Records
---
Amino acid sequence: MLCLICNEEIFEGDKIQCFNCKEHLHFTCAAFRESVFRKLNKKAKSNWSCSSCKTKNNSDLICKSPSQENNINEISEETLQGVINSVNFMSSQFDSFGKQLKEIILSITELKNENKRITEENLKIKKELNTISNRANILEQKALECHIEIVGIPESKNENYTDTFEKINIKLGTKISVNNIYRIPSKYSDKPRKISVIFNSLAEKNEFMKQAKKEKLIAKHFDASWNNSPVYFNNLMTYSNKTLFYKAKTTAKQN
């Protein structure tokens, strides 16, 4: 059988039948709490009326003549208790729903405020980290101002880096000594490793680079036994500056 209210199937133990219209309902659709419904005796259930019939009966009672007033007294105590229980149940349900709704709204408000605070803190931290990163990059680049890297010089077994640099000095017509010179480890096994040069001063580095940039040079220009691979003299840059420089060159070529 189907429930008059929700039109869904009713299980035997969950149904209640209206005394007047004989329709069946779920006890929950009839506004009964389960604890109350299970306590109703057979007589109370058999005398129960649905809300539609109650409304109709009440209208009929109002219109009855004084001679019919005694029929009102025939309403059983169980029926009245059922109405009271139904009203109390609905009232408690609305009170509970209102309380839960207030708690949910309060929780949402607190979460919004917390999210706003965290977002503002993250933005502040991001800004501070960016400032620290920029300062660190400037300091790192400052520490590299006397460094250059030379690309394309062939490697030889047991090579003397000082002699290698002197060959370059002779070709460029410079007489500059260096603080340190060494090969940089490389991930490419088919190419010679770069040579890192540290000058004693920025002025000496600038003088050297000025001469090195005047013409396109190949390895053979410095030693007849070397090959024709091009040789490049580059300022040593931080990773951030090197990335920026690469992007700038790429954009320039595209334009």
Note: The chain is about 50% helix and 10% strand.
---
Amino acid sequence: MAVLPQDFAHYLELVKSLPYGPALLFLTKLAIAWPVTFHTLNGVRHLFWDMGYGYDIKTLYKTGYLVLGLSIAGAAGLAAL
């Protein structure tokens, strides 16, 4: 965004004026938001691993599914904004 000729508000209005339905816009925002939220939450999981917590296989699976579920929910929440 720093090198584009217009400001962020201009491009936001441009996207809003596109003839696509809200479902397609939601899915596009979800596709952008999910990798960011997954990467962030999994980074927190790795920080706990660095401290020595959560190495047994049962905890690995639990935290893996937790990160997956929370990242999908968080991305859906961000995409709904």
Note: Helices lie at 8-16, 22-50, 57-80.
---
Amino acid sequence: MIYYRNESKDPYYNLALEELLTKDETITDDILLLWQNDNTIVIGVNQNTIEEVNNDYVKAHNVNVVRRLSGGGAVYHDLGNLNFTFIFNKNKDNVRNYPLFTKPIITVLQKLGVNAQFSGKNDLEVAGKKISGNAQYVYKNRIMHHGTILFDVDLTILPQTLKPDLTKLQSKAIKSVQARVTNILPLLDQKITIAQFKDLIIEELKTTKGTKILDVSPELVAKAQQLAQAKYRTWQWNYGNSPAFNLENKVYLQDKGTVDVKIAVEQGIIKTIKIYGDFLGSKGTKILESQLVNQPYNYQIINQLLNESEVKAVFGSNFTKDEIIRILIK
């Protein structure tokens, strides 16, 4: 395994670097990145940015907003949050295997006396409170798994930056986003810095994976800066155009995620369709959406067009074709 040092706090550069390392077919080694973003909301690839962020707060406090390649929900990062990224060769054992990738993080936390456990579809929790969320992205034969670690985040800012999804909170009988999360630092008997915590993760993987430490090459830095400018800093990538819709349905399924479907239908034909949500499939929604455009808005037709394996690739292994069809056709 290679650990690439990355001290950048620029979210646009950091996500560009992640993408380049994932898609570089000359690299076959496993990769580890540990990185931080300053004052940033990171949006899942399938989410509607306008509906997720508190735009008044974002503008007033100059919060960065950037969309990532993977699914899942929106998260707020400050310098008290540590992000980790693993990039591996894809195989049948690691695709959608979230516990496998989070195991080193859990091991380090347990050595520090924090009883962290994998929970739900993509979280790490301590005593029922979330300390980490995770997501994955697959490119050809490579899989990127990344996650957040709430080490010492300002939890008073967190609920101000995001609009809570009331369908999720109501189903869990929780009154606020803030009530669901906690930091690691207060749980430690012996206090350490986030830099020391990062070093412990590196040491764990040096022991178990023989990890070697490298600097990002100047050439790769330049490419990441170019990609950040061309893609990750653009309004089109982070917000995108929002066409008019006349049919909408938003459903939260326990332990699976939220699916928010918006469809424009004219004379019984689907003219535009956009599927948003925090589901965790390894395949984006665009191919499925393109299959449905110009098709009749009809149960039998949609049932014929969709297949079970495609649904699981787009939405996650816990979803079924019937569940998605019931969301598409109210």
Note: The two ends are 48 Å apart (CA to CA).
---
Amino acid sequence: MYAVIKTGGKQYRVAEGQKLKIEQIPADIGQEISLDQVLSVGEGESIKIGAPFVAGAVVKAKVLAQGRHDKVKIFKMRRRKHYQRHQGHRQNYTQIVIEAITA
């Protein structure tokens, strides 16, 4: 069984037992969360598609860690103009594991 969920402005296809990193959410490590923005649920040949969300569908997950991704370096340069700009960015994330999908 799998589901397509929406969190942090992104969509993820998840299955039970899967680990993934999502945009940071305010939750403690070890806390169970429920993701109720489920766009579709599928099992084998059958699939339920919501408009926009599947009614009554919930994905239960457990928070494993809070952290930051590797640094992304931004470098801008205009040749022959003596212009260089360096910038870096580290995005926060929450690592979760999917425990149950109910539809």
Note: The mean pLDDT is 96.
